Amino acid sequence: EMEQVMVDEWEIDVLRQRVTGLDMDARTVTTDAGDTYQFNKQVIDCSGPAMALAKLMGDVEEILPAHAIWSYYDIAEVDPVGGEELAAKMGRKFVAYNASEARLMEGGLPEGWAPNATTTLTQIKKNMWLWQIPLFGGTRLSCGVVSRTGVVNEEEFDALVEQHHLPCLTLKKRSRDGSGVYNRLHMRSNFAKRAKAASTADFIMIADAFAFGDPIYSVGTGLAVNKAIQVAKMLNDEGWSEAKSGWYNEQYERLITAAMEAFSYWYGLDLVSSDEAASGLQKAMLEGSVFGAQITEFDNSQLRCAVGDPESEEHTHFPPDEIFSGDE
Question: Strands, E, within the chain: which ranges?
Fold first, then answer.
């Protein structure tokens, strides 16, 4: 959605071809249309988790074991249950995080909480969690399981969704006949990968095209857009250089280190019992300090070209993207 808004706003001509070959010595790129393009400066890879450039160079390494399986359900009914009643049905207690005091505190759900309008992440056990993301105005639910311990098959997945989805939602399983994105079972393994380097004097990788760790952070579009603007500003400021490439690479290495530490907070078992773990996840992931701290300032007017002036009533709002949804 955001990509199309940018294309329309900036009136960009998009050539839809798949890159199939790269020759750094000859400085050429070939595509599935049989065309060859010469480049004089840098190749910029914005292919996201496809990691097109890194794969063409045979330069991809696994960060950690990761497997995901997901599908879609229609939300047939919503029970307007209160927080305490819901906790009783789930056999759990609710713990809130007080951001101003950086501590956990027992308490009910906020007033007006709507389960079919709220993204819910559930830790099933150590190294396994379930996402529930409402779509289309709370009428459809994306459910997915991420595991670090091995592949989850369809039968296991269905059982986990049945056991761990919010009991106040009545779900209707959609067809998995493959007739559309929302009518099939999606599976992906070994997606937590990185390239050797985010850039050299000859190429620049943007965001997930360089590395992808875990869908828990779910800031893919924001990070990619900010990184693209950051790189564009550096290119417009006297071009690319080895010094800029070195700084860019160091910045990304710090980001990966911080992100891996934040992932450990999520996958550990003390998230709802340790103030330190809860605070670490809140600041690093939910508030996005892991990623925001790595991004240089840029002129807000550049974003307004894409999404409209936020002070105007005529602007497009983009919710946090479901980075690993598979909603092609």
Answer: 19-23, 28-31, 36-38, 43-45, 60-62, 67-78, 95-98, 103-106, 120-125, 128-135, 140-147, 169-173, 186-189, 193-195, 203-205, 211-212
